[in-house]
Design goal:
Length: 86
């Protein structure tokens, strides 16, 4: 069984203006096959035309495209029992 990944670089709070892209990044202690999930409030996010989710090694990135006021809220990233929010 693989060791659990932990979050070593947490999400940072950002401010962006309507129409801009908002970029959130965090880094894990190791590359993992464990389930990872991004949330806006309580809503799980998936990659689509509005959200881009990237994984490059241990770096996990969420890009919210052309944000609106409805996108305002808490973004969180979860891996196993570990969570980071901004």
């Amino acid at each position: 069984k693989e060791p659990e990944a932990t979050i070593v670089e947490k999400l940072k709070d950002i401010t962006s203006y309507e129409g801009e892209d908002a970029v959130f990044e965090c880094r894990l202690s190791r590359e993992t096959a464990q389930d990872t999930q991004w949330f806006l409030g309580d809503v799980p996010l998936q990659s689509n035309e509005m959200n881009e989710i990237r994984v490059q090694g241990t770096r996990h990135t969420l890009i919210l495209r052309k944000v609106t006021l409805e996108d305002c809220g808490t973004i969180s990233f979860k891996v196993g029992q570990h969570t980071s929010a901004a």
